[in-house]
Design a protein that fits this description.
alpha+beta, eleven-stranded antiparallel β-sheet, 5 helices, 11 strands, globular
Length: about 250
């Protein structure tokens, strides 16, 4: 057993860990593709147990409650990404990122525009010109603050960078917000160097009730595939109406 702490820096929602980053923490010890499943909100600044289990890893809280798990994957879920857009097209799409004009997730580790460089990843994606509705892209450069001893972006940071783009693919397609990452299958082919400008691409795959699936990919500036993923997002339902008594005393 090992104890880890997901610091507040790595939040998605203000009081919970960033889903893609935490999935990457679970998957980084697995060689090849891995599938990570989140079962509960991830506590921040609290000791958590990360235990090996049947070839993968399990993350649990201080009272043993299951938070998430990751297992090796055959990679069958992993989609074949579309051709990478040019770096210029990705930059232009990222300038249309909705979070720059709306307060969607302003302090999210992945997509929060209120983060400083080197504190958050600042992955901003928007509708890609000439692509089907919902295909989003952006440019991302791994910051030196996140580099490991080899000067490369760690696995969990790459998974984190691919988190929110899948969410915004569906935001662009459906025009609604409000979904949580439930499952992510990912494969890192080559980890980019700190300072290496990359292209992020995401696209909606299918919707089944409250489940939305998305494909995500990371490319080098020249179009080399660096990483790819398949995501399952759980759409949050509308808030139920309050009882008359509760509304009257609110």
């Amino acid at each position: 057993m090992s104890k880890i702490i997901i610091g507040r820096q790595f939040c998605g929602p203000p009081n919970s860990g960033n889903g893609g980053y935490v999935c990457g923490v679970l998957a980084k010890g697995i060689e090849g593709p891995a599938t990570a499943v989140l079962r509960a909100p991830i506590p921040l600044d609290a000791p958590l147990a990360l235990d090996p289990a049947t070839g993968g890893f399990v993350l649990s809280g201080d009272e043993g409650q299951l938070i998430g798990k990751a297992d090796p994957s055959a990679g069958a879920e992993l989609p074949t990404p579309p051709k990478a857009p040019s770096l210029e097209a990705a930059r232009a799409a990222g300038a249309r990122y909705q979070g720059l004009t709306q307060r969607i997730h302003p302090i999210c580790f992945t997509c929060g525009p209120e983060r400083e460089d080197g504190d958050g990843l600042k992955v901003f994606v928007g509708q890609l010109d000439g692509a089907e509705h919902g295909v989003v892209a952006g440019a991302w450069t791994p910051h030196a603050n996140f580099a490991d001893g080899e000067g490369l972006a760690p696995t969990e940071v790459i998974w984190g960078a691919l988190d929110c783009p899948g969410f915004f693919a569906w935001v662009e397609k459906e025009g609604r917000h409000g979904a949580l990452l439930g499952t992510m299958t990912g494969e890192v082919i080559r980890r980019p160097k700190a300072g290496e400008e990359c292209i992020v691409l995401a696209w909606p795959l299918a919707r089944d009730g409250r489940k939305e699936t998305a494909g995500v990919a990371l490319f080098s500036a020249s179009g080399e595939l660096l990483a790819r993923g398949h995501q399952v997002w759980i759409v949050m339902g509308p808030r139920p109406p309050q009882p008359v008594e509760a509304a009257a005393t609110a």
